[in-house]
Amino acid sequence: MFTLKNKNVQAAIVLALVWLGVFIASYAQNQLAGMSVQFMEHYGFTPEQYASIYSASQFIGIFFAFVSGILSDKIGTRNIVLIAAGMVLIATVARIFAFSFEAQYISNMFCGFTGMFMAVNRAKILGGWFPPATIALAVGIATTTTPVANTLGVGLTSLMPSIEFAFIVTAVVSAVFFIGWFLFGKERSDEIAAAEDKAKGEDSGKVLKSLVEIIKTPWIWVLCGGAFFLMAAQVPLMAFTNASLVNARGLDPVAAGGFATAITIGMGIGSVVTPLIVKAIKAYRPVIVIYAVITALGIYFGWQMPVGVIMYVVYFITGWCLGALLAMIFTWPVMIYGREKAATAGGLVQTFVLAGASLALTNITIPLAGGGSNFEMLFTIAAVYLVVGGILMFLIPDQGKKLGAKKKAAEEQ
Which residues cross the membrane (predicted)? Predict the structure, then answer.
């Protein structure tokens, strides 16, 4: 491991590696969405098998997301991420040579390891390099990785010459991350390490105490429920938009991938711009109501829109609103429980995020939607999920009021 003399340069490198670690998981998954039809035809998989493989990377996180923070504390964030990166590298290479359902499922499942550990420990790692004044910006930049990965995974994969070539690209990216983290991955700066090590004795038992305090509050369960239903809505949209446009509307895979990309582009822009809107009006709830309604309508009607500009705009706006709602879910643990408890609360929320992404799709959505072939029923169910998630988010005390309070306090100081 190299420690650079320029702290700011190494902080930027660590930020880039955190971004790339989450990118690999999302990119590997959304490659499947970008070539869903070809993928099923190439390997002879049914829609049910495709849905299981697509959500496999989230499924394993259900059992590990909550404890990943504890594991990181035990053996160190750098070490746990390095182990995860090695497993992902092996999985992405194995995926190239996997021809059975079982082999594809297992290899895709382990492709999500770095994304899971980075998602839970993202704030902790960046908090070890960036001061409080810039930590929000650093985390904000890191959270753009998912929509970017979705856009590239869906949009570029449909242009690639073969499925094997697409999988090789992912393996190369995972190799770059493994080498980069091995050389430069460091969970905190020397200054912060010294301060934390000095106070280490005072923090014994804090994780368990924080966990007990968090699970006693009703809002963590409402937040987890909102996370579950939002992801249960997002995954069918991303996984089956391409297939619905090819099979039901008669588009070629490249054109279908272009429309699906509009969703991910909208997600990236919406997740960055919407916080500025919330800051201006100092309220989340009006935004939640408007965005939830728009997203539910977009999920249901998007694939039925006239092919062309109208369909692209509908999908873009749908992605804008959906991306903003998901960004709120990932931000609120910090705003509700503070930085000291954010990792514990975030780990619990992440568990429900992954459960919504995997269990709901394979056990509820796909069976009710005729094995994934009834697109009208599939997107109807996804729209209902979104409405339920929006209602749960609305019930949570409006965190937008805190933005004004924090700004006023900062000015007084």
Answer: 52-72, 79-99, 105-123, 135-159, 165-184, 219-239, 259-278, 283-303, 309-330, 342-366, 378-397
